[in-house]
Amino acid sequence: MNDTAAASVLPAFDDVLAAAARIAPHAHVTPVLRSRSLDASAGCELHFKAEHLQRAGAFKFRGACNAIWSLDDATAARGVVTHSSGNHGAALALAARTRGVACHVVVPEGAVAAKLAAIEAYGATLHRCAPTIAAREAGCAQLQAQLGAELVHPYTDPRVIAGQGTAALELLCTQAHFDALIVPVGGGGLAAGTALSVAARSPATRLYLAEPAGAAETFASMQRGERVTDFTPDTVCDGLRGTLGAINFSMLHAHGAQVLTAGDADTVAAMRLFWQRTKQIVEPSSAVALAVVLGNPALFAGQRVGVVLTGGNVDPDALPALFAST
Amino acid sequence: MNDTAAASVLPAFDDVLAAAARIAPHAHVTPVLRSRSLDASAGCELHFKAEHLQRAGAFKFRGACNAIWSLDDATAARGVVTHSSGNHGAALALAARTRGVACHVVVPEGAVAAKLAAIEAYGATLHRCAPTIAAREAGCAQLQAQLGAELVHPYTDPRVIAGQGTAALELLCTQAHFDALIVPVGGGGLAAGTALSVAARSPATRLYLAEPAGAAETFASMQRGERVTDFTPDTVCDGLRGTLGAINFSMLHAHGAQVLTAGDADTVAAMRLFWQRTKQIVEPSSAVALAVVLGNPALFAGQRVGVVLTGGNVDPDALPALFAST
User: What's the domain count of chain B?
Assistant: First the structure.
């Protein structure tokens, strides 16, 4: 997928508000979880936006649902296409089903069988390709050409960014003020949408992006003031291995979001701690946000901090090894 | 602990109502969880009472809290004592702390360190003893004699039974009618309390007790019409290895509760399925209730079924092995 194609129109906060109205009949308003003992451990007041309890198990449903319900009828009739072997693929498949739209997902050979089964269970058609970015993009382009299907990029699509911004919008409504808000960053769809909501609704709230130390190209991009794209991710956070999109970088750089990183060991420890205290399993890609809070106590001491827990889709066969390794 | 001592007064539904009022300032009204995909898998409408989200991670806090706040001031000043290396010990410790009551917990040598740490973290004093029932009972008796501390038995104490009945009371309030209600059974505190609430509030609802096949002495007791006590439990459900109490047997036999059993493999599979669909980790001792639903589809087809998920306290070091074994 060419991530500049969709970047011609920057989404705005009005688009987040429109997305909230558009997805309301379909998406969950997820709960905000609290834990006295986690507050005590962190030395601050933590409000966890529980997107692992969103439909299809991740915030991705918000953006996918907004994209699907933004389509005009003629476009919807031709279907949508994306490439993803993870949460976006499942989210788009489920969102498409809410409107009876055909959904095509290009998936690389070697993807986790359980994830592909989930995408198929939501009614999407899988199209296998070689495990390279070029092959994935070619697969999408072919389906676009062949079927007239609409491309819904996982994080550079303005409709997706606007949809992702609704999670922070809901969270910010639950308290008069947050000192800080933390979201994980991968491609930057959630991060950019969150920046829109923070800027419009709570400009005094500091926005932090949590990034795995083994895939910290957003950190490097922000430092350098331009997008870094040549890196090889090495992290257990499988949802955060992608490269920050161009439109996403522009929005986050303009907002002045700060990046905090955490190593995988701290992320898995945070995931395990969160489980022990709340009985919830979140993905490593979510737990990195708690890890950066625990790793930077001076930044958050005594403050009210919002944390978006992005998803809970852990490969069932991977969990034992994940927890055993700590 | 002598489980006939406390059996002189059978608790009644009025005691459950009194308990509900007594614990309201301290206990959570836990949410009722639903899952479309679990309903589809089970072929019925499942309503999960999420006691793994109760304070201290299990329904046990209800009974412990009711016992603590039932004490007169003079008794409270002398403290409470119990023996438990599991959820009841932690629950009593936390409940005692809500009233500033001293709490003594007799624990056997060899108990899981993480569990003992949790009991201590809630402010209780640990008293170690040899790992036999006789040693535990002697330890309790000594503290009762020495300090005048009040014994709070984990499941035969009428105050505890009444407190546990509040979970079903809350669940039954959420729908006009339930066809069936399922609770796990070990010592029978929750089961007996639930029977009181069902009989008073929803007598047409069938009450099922879920029991591990490897500790199915309640099943045997119900079949025989008298309490079976000579058995050696062999199950992964560590909260359900105890023997049904005498008072508990009487109440459950009188109610006509039916027992359904599940093997450990099915229980762990149910625990894993519940995690995948809801991102929640419940104990094997809770998952056995879902396992009996899945194992007896004809009994529940198309019905509205309440399930009390009793707790979520899994030893962090045990989870990998538990899931790896399936």
Answer: 2
